[in-house]
Amino acid sequence: MKVEEIKKQFEKDLVHASSNQEVEAIRVAYLGRKSKVTDILKNIAKLSVDEKKTVGAEANKLKLEIDSALTEKLNQISAKSTKKPIDISEPGTKYPVGHMHPLTQFIQKSIDVFKSIGFEVYQSPEVDTAYYNFDTLNVPKDHPARDSFDTFYIEDGRDISDDNKLLLRTHTTNSDVRYMETHKPPVRIIIPGKCYRHDTLDASHEATFYQMDGLVIGEGICITDLLGTLRYFAQEIFGKDVKTRARPHFYPFTEPSIDLDISCVLCKGKGCPVCKRSGWLEVMPCGMVHPNVLKKMGVDPEKYSGYAFGFGIERLMMLYYGINDIRLGYSSDLRFLEQF
Ligand SMILES: [Zn+2]
């Protein structure tokens, strides 16, 4: 780099310096052992006699100029910092304020709906045993969901029975029997939280996802209570014109088991690519708690009955906000997050 260019660059840099540290950094960059000015002086021996004269003189002159400019700048800075009066009317520094993540906002909204009809929030462990995650829920030992392709097992080096095997819960339903071990009916709880499964990442699947389970046990609880509660929830979230429909299904922990659909909130039931032109969205697996599960809870199936439901929070959140890629929900991209 030519002496003249270095000088120009130095002047530019110095204008922006506003603290002693910044000025010191510029001194190192321009006069330090590895700086460009030192470089020129070091390599002067390689030049011709004529060049040596001019370049050597120019470089030395620049060195002195830089040095005095730096000293002057330091004086300016210290004069400023000691003389500046405090202006108490000056506006303060504005710091950007964050806000709740859209997923958290949606979970909170869902919790509020259930709370308004008497549900309580319960939290269960994310790392649990196979006993609470599967056995208590009437999931047979040979059920494919237990396969390690779906479940993250935790190796903790202990030689233990299959029931005590630790895993990352695959659903929030792991809380149902645990909660009932310490509570007597009537109960009405929702369990929001993170779940984990071996899933290939794509626009609608994540290995970590949120679920919200619900459990109601009491005397005389019947299937219409279940359907009414979930319809109330769907209409509070998506609007009063949302319709629901129940289809029979199979889940090991409920009998009868139901898949509750809601009318497509995007096309209002007319048919669109999201609802695969059917006008319906499959969103809420649910059913009446299986008598075997009630027994595991220590509840007499002859006296009490109950219902349970569990839904993926992300899917509902995506429908609620009109988001088409689940991965956006986990990104920390402010262009996305600032829209909520
Ligand atoms: Zn649709």
Q: Which tags fit this structure?
A:
seven-stranded mixed β-sheet; binds zinc ion; 340 residues; three-stranded antiparallel β-sheet; alpha+beta; 2 domains; BirA Bifunctional Protein, domain 2; 20% strand
How many domain units?
2
Strands in their spatial order, largest beta sheet: 1-5-6-10-9-8-7
Order of helices and strands: HHHHHEEHEEHEEHEEEHEHH
Mean pLDDT: 88
What does this protein structure show overall?
With 340 residues, the protein is of the alpha+beta class. The chain has two domains: 81 residues; 236 residues, Bira Bifunctional Protein, Domain 2 (BirA Bifunctional Protein, domain 2), CATH 3.30.930.10. Helices cover 37% and strands 20% of the residues. It contains eleven helices and ten strands. The strands form two sheets. The protein has a seven-stranded mixed beta sheet with strand order 1-5-6-10-9-8-7. It has a three-stranded antiparallel beta sheet with strand order 2-4-3. Helix 2 runs antiparallel to helix 4 and helix 5 crosses helix 10. The two termini are 50 Å apart. The structure holds zinc ion. Zinc ion binds next to loops.
Which helices and strands occur, and which strands form pairs?
Layout: H1 3-16, H2 20-31, H3 36-42, H4 49-83, H5 102-115, E1 120-121, E2 127-129, H6 130-133, E3 153-154, E4 166-168, H7 175-180, E5 187-196, E6 208-218, H8 223-238, E7 244-251, E8 254-263, E9 280-289, H9 291-296, E10 305-312, H10 313-321, H11 334-337
Parallel strand pairs: 1-5
Antiparallel strand pairs: 2-4, 3-4, 5-6, 6-10, 7-8, 8-9, 9-10
Helix pairs in contact: 1-4, 2-4, 5-10
The structure holds zinc ion.
